[in-house]
Amino acid sequence: MDSAAKDEMQPALLPGPEWPEQERAERLARGAALKWASGIFYRPEQLARLSQYRSREVQRTCSLEARIKSVVQSYLEGVKTGMWQLARALEAVHGARVALGQARGLLRGMAEAAQTLEPLRERVAQHKQLQALSQLLPRLRAVPAAVAHTQTLIGAQQLLEAYVSLRELEQLREETWEALGGLELPIFERLGPLAEALGQAVEAAAGAAGKLAREDPALLVAAVRVAEVDAGCTTSLEQAPRDWRQRCLRALQEGLEQIHFGTPLLPGPGALEGWLEALRVALPAELATAEALIAPCCPPHYKVVQLWAHTLHSGLRHCLQQLLEEPELGAADAFTLLHWALHVYLGPEMMGSLELGPEADVSQLEPLLTLENIEHLETTFVAKVQASVAQWLQKALDGEVAEWSREQEPDRDTSGFYHSPMPAIVLQILEENIRVASRVSESLQQRVHGMALSELGAFLRSFSDALIRFSRDHLRGEAMAPHYVPYLLASLNHQSALSSSVSVLQPDGVASGAMAPVEAALDELQRRICRDTVSEVLDDVCERTARFCQDFWRVRNPAVQLLLAEAERTVVLQYLRALMQGRLVCRGADERTQAAERLRHDAAQLRELFLGLGLEESVQCAPVLLALRELLNLRDPTLLGLEVAGLRQQFPDVSEDHVSALLDLRGDVSREQRLAALSSLQAGPQPSPAVGRRALFSLVPAPTPAPSSCLPSGPCA
């Protein structure tokens, strides 16, 4: 296209709107020029150069106009070129639109033609399928026979041959499936059950790995090889993977667990020890078999020895958990299980044997018994042992108590001291249980030690109760013991032997203060035996007094009455002095009852003695013992004020110190009750004049009163 035509196609440029800043720019330019001119021509000598300045500015103005014209001309030429290119692009777009319309029509025609060819395409596909089937037909006809043959191989345990035959059938099925475009023929329906039968045969062989490794290792190797080869096979069919390798590993574990921990093998009651002993021998032997025979039949990544060790450990752990869910174990079973699990299992005789490699290490696995299991077994063991110990100690006590009524004196040792095997039996029972418990753990030893001290304390309390009954029945005459005092002395020897030997129950690491309650109970029991023994002195006193006074009948009245009265008062004063010494402190209602009964018995004994000697009852002093009995036998300590006031009325010479000492005998009077009882001496009515009364308490030295800040009497009072 020539320039003339090009110019004709280009649109004319229209004058644009006036520039809004033009006037301001001109003003600024004129101002700047005037400022410059005034600066240049301010001095007269410079006016001569005016023509030069004018010509220079004209040249500069022409140069600027030429440059502006060139720029504007270039811009106009670019605009013209752009307008021409846009016109050409518009023509090209119109041409492309026309061409696309033509192509759309052609495509519509081709689609209609393709629809007419669809039946032909289907016929072609059918032809290809028929052609493929015609080629595979000889092989398809042999499928039923191949399936039967494979089944026979599986039954004959020829696993490798059976797997090869199965894979050939599966490859034929895949070829047929691909040839038929994803269509599976009914002739291959039996391949699924056939493969499952082979998988079960592989599992059965793996489950009997221990037996096969010794008798038929080739079968075990074949089963493992089938599982490994199948793990690397892929199929184009959309089927779930058989994962025979995992099934083989599970079968190895389940077979091993069934051999050693199957339900029929669980021990019954009382058979736990034999069962654990059998496991102690069988498990290391099983690991040795795995390392020597089974591991060579399996790939290295099976880690057979580690698999065997972990399987045996987890199976044993699960089995023990089942045993613990059964009804409560006996003491022997609980001890056996604790000792076996904590010491034997990981010891050198079993899993810690140096003959086993590092793969058999199970020390980092979960322990056989959890902390809760150990706590349960220890509690069970201690409870059962405690019941057994209590029964044995009760039998020993019953046998000892039965001997107290024998016609002959207690047995004596070679030195002539009263002797009984009971202390040795008691300590042996307790010490043996503590020693046995120390073989398991320190915590069990501490539990059994606490139980032993508890049972020893209970035994001492039972012994004390039996002694109280024995003394009470003897004093009341309900069961007179032929050798009362000798058996009390023998009991004192028993408790002394226990006191001197009880330290054998003190294991290492246990605070010595744990023995303090038992030692205090032994000390108190010895004091009780001493009190019961010494109380028999009154019988001897009465006999000696009777012999001493047997010639008093030769003295005439009233001198004989005065002599007998002084003798009776002397005995009573000695009795009161013994009471005031504070040697007797009752520790409970039973002891207060026994002491009160003793006072009644002694008062009656003295009364009968001096009545028999001829002393009139009205002048006897023994009734003071009955008054003290009432004070001691009072059930409610808050009523002690009334009893003290009554005692003051009967015996005006009783002092606060005497009353305080008598209140100490009870052992249950608080500070407030003591103050209230003592205040009744001052607040109560004054006693009547002592007409015909003789002094008693004023002749008995009162014990030194304890400071008001002291504590009540303790066990050593």
TrEMBL record:
Name any Gene Ontology BP term. exocytosis
**Main localisation:** cytoplasm
Pfam family of this protein, just one?
Sec6
Q: What is this protein for, i.e. what is its function?
A: As part of the exocyst, may play a role in regulated exocytosis of insulin granules.
Keyword Hydrolase among UniProt keywords: no
What family does this chain come from, according to its entry? Belongs to the SEC6 family.
Species of the source? Equus asinus asinus
Q: Where in the cell is it found?
A: Cytoplasmic vesicle, Secretory vesicle
- What name does UniProt use for this protein? Exocyst complex component 3-like protein
Gene encoding it? EXOC3L1
Question: What keywords sit in the KW lines?
Answer: Cytoplasmic vesicle, Exocytosis
Question: Which GO molecular function annotations are given, in alphabetical order?
Answer: SNARE binding
Q: Name one GO cellular component term.
A: exocyst
UniProt subunit comment: Interacts with EXOC2, EXOC4 and EXOC5; may be part of the exocyst.
